Amino acid sequence: MNALLDTHTLLWWLDGDEKLSWIAKEWIAEPSHVVLVSAASAWEIAAKVRIGKLPGAEAVVDSYQDCLKEQGFTPLAITTDHALRAGSLPGPHRDPFDRMLIAQAQAENIALISNEVLFDSYGVRRIW
After folding, report:
1. Which residue of 54, 100, 108, 118 is most buried, as measured by CB atoms within 10 A?
2. CA-to-CA distance for 48 and 105, rounded, in angstroms?
3. Which secondary structure element, helix H or strand E, spans residue 10, and what is its range?
4. Phi first, then psi: what are they for 30, rounded to 5°?
């Protein structure tokens, strides 16, 4: 089974943060599951570190590829289909990173591991 991590889920997993639900922890830790991480998360983390919204995440940016590899996570590239879906999504949700994750989950027919209840309105299966 495959699922896509939301950016906050990735960061909470890497930090061992207690905000990560036990269901999400168990799902991510299950060796038979394929955990995908979008290129949008790399973009979001780097952008937020640059503007000071993610203090302490500089190490993640500096060793992003190694972090994913060490965790056994699989990078998910952004395709043209993903970009067109994200840009065409209806509704008022304006966060470009969330819109990309929603589009990727839809296009790849995979669940999102996220606490974002708003994702439910886009018909995305959500694990939390």
Report:
1. 100
2. 23
3. helix 7-15
4. -65, 115
Which of 43, 40, 25, 30 is closest to 1 using CA atoms? Answer: 30
pLDDT tens digits, 21-78: 999 999 999 999 999 999 999 999 999 999 999 998 999 999 999 999 999 999 999 9
Type and span of the H or E element at 37? strand 34-38
Q: Which amino acid is at 101?
A: L
End-to-end CA distance of the chain: 15
Angle at 83 between CA 79 and CA 89, to 5 degrees: 140
Residues in the chain: 128
Question: Do 39 and 92 contact (CB within 8 A), yes or no?
Answer: no
